[in-house]
Amino acid sequence: MRLMLEGAVSFVLNRKILIIAGAAILSCIVAMGVWAYVRANSGYSVYIYYFNIRTNQLESEERVISVNDPALMVETVLRMLYVTPRNNALRQTIPEGLFLDSVNISLGGVMTASFPVEYHDMPSYEEALFRASFVQTMTNLPFINIEGVRILVDGEELFDSFGEPLGIHTQSSVLVNPNIRARRVTSRTLTLYFVNEDLSGLVSEERHVDVAVDAVEYSILNQLIEGPQIDDGHMSGIPTGTRIMGILTEPGICSINLSEEFVSNFSGSPTAADLTLQAIVNTIFENQSTINSIQFLIESERRESFNGVPDFDAMFVREEPEQNGE
């Protein structure tokens, strides 16, 4: 590996980088002026972006790196792009056999990543996903200021469908389309409510999970759909096949749009249906203090009832705690 210090001295580091089962030589030219600082004897949290096949979004998983050498820190992050994500709903976007030829980070904070000609073997949509995840990962690093990424293939610029060079990608310009965007993920302890075995009420379960910062309600509801982890006869109540069509959260109000399967696949009693709604509503209220009202939609439409439960089209409002002496 060649590490060049612009405006200072230069020296050569010979280092072989192992990626997956293979090995590659990564030539990395780093301008030291863009390094913020290197913190000794501690680690940095970095976010590796993957594609969520369920939500059609880019979502990140947190990783920690503890190496102190600047070049090794960049190498470590690049290797992490090849690592299988922990979340089964996520998949890596870079092909296993596609390795970097070289990386250059300029004083102006622009990373130039050069790939071999095999880069063009990716279908256009897959290539766009990879570009988006690569740029989001590299421009969100806490220990170095990377403002944008230029991708070269066999030394040549990438071009769009009109023959114009794509140039430097930034976090805002690299979006694949308006429906595919990057989501930062953070860890939270959620209190989830499920229906108990004899349908007499709800039971709670705490779960430590990664949630999307800009889509917490989606993450919460997805945990309810997955069901309880405690094997004690508890159940989600949400029928198999239910999909989240969308969740819109405006000041104080959360609109939950579910697929038709939520209604058509529900086979329980009206009591079970009522408890299922209570479980969803109570879980959202418990974990999102800024939400005071919840509206249910089925395939973007209101339904008057749900399996014998009336007023399904009404707002479910948070109950205010009773004041003593009133």
Tell me what the structure shows.
This protein is an alpha+beta fold and 326 residues long. It folds into two domains: 2-183, no CATH class; 186-317, no CATH class. Helices cover 18% and strands 31% of the residues. The chain has helices spanning 70-80, 124-138, 216-226, 261-264, 270-287; strands at residues 2-4, 10-12, 17-19, 22-24, 27-30, 44-52, 57-65, 90-91, 102-105, 110-115, 148-153, 156-157, 168-169, 182-183, 185-195, 202-212, 244-250, 253-258, 293-298, 316-317. Strands 5, 9, 10, 11, 12 and 13 form a six-stranded mixed beta sheet that branches. A four-stranded mixed beta sheet has the order 8-6-7-14, covered by helices on one side. A hairpin with a 2-residue loop joins strand 3 and strand 4 (22-24). It is elongated, with a radius of gyration of 24 Å.
